[in-house]
Design a protein that fits this description.
About 30% of the residues lie in helices and about 30% in strands. The protein is of the alpha/beta class and about 190 residues long. One of its GO terms (molecular function) is 16S rRNA (guanine(966)-N(2))-methyltransferase activity.
């Protein structure tokens, strides 16, 4: 069972796509992740994009905890349908679901820079494809200067290949899951 952990929609059950190849983030991992995000004070009023959304659990959790806008991107038709149903059941304004590939969505800049980005791709997505997604976030100006980028992968995966405009800010391991946190690189101050 996947559910919203906390916030306005706390304890609400989420449907999960059957047979779509999605891999929902466990409640335990989401609880730890969102505890960290609350500690960092990045959720209230956040502009969120959840790439490879699956059921939408990460983006919908952010909405439940105070994000102002959430864009859920899912390419699998069945998964996108479930994501739309979950978003509708949540009943929180500001949530949009896009049935499209991540690459297509990222090829055009956002209406405004995002403050929190989740990338939780299928484990079979190659490292080069993930690096291209991260590069597109920078190249198409998806990121607010204070943005936080969260990448979730198998604990056996290597650290993502960050574009030079992003720098690693931390990582956590939860059993078979590893999460990396990155943000825009602070320009060097020249005296």
């Amino acid at each position: 069972m996947t559910r919203i952990i906390s916030g306005r929609a706390g304890s609400m059950r989420l449907a999960t796509p059957a047979g779509s190849g999605t891999r929902p983030t466990s409640d335990r991992v989401r609880e730890a992740l969102f505890s960290r995000l609350e500690h960092l004070e990045v959720l209230i009023g956040a502009r969120v994009v959840d790439l490879y959304a699956g059921s939408g659990a990460l983006g919908l959790e952010a909405a439940s905890r105070g994000a102002s806008t959430v864009l859920l991107v899912e390419s699998d038709k069945a998964a996108a349908k479930v994501t739309k149903q979950n978003a509708g059941a949540l009943g929180i304004p500001g949530i949009t679901v896009r049935h499209a590939t991540v690459q297509r969505v990222l090829s055009v800049g956002p209406p405004e820079p995002q403050t929190l980005v989740f990338l939780d791709p299928p484990y079979e997505l190659g490292e080069d494809a993930l690096a291209a997604d991260l590069g597109a976030l920078v190249d198409q100006q998806w990121l607010d200067p204070e943005a936080l980028v969260v990448v979730e992968r198998s604990s056996r995966s290597p650290e993502p290949a960050w574009p030079q405009e992003l720098e690693l800010e931390g990582e956590r391991r939860y059993g078979e899951t590893k999460i990396w946190f990155a943000g825009p690189r602070t320009p060097d101050v020249v005296a």
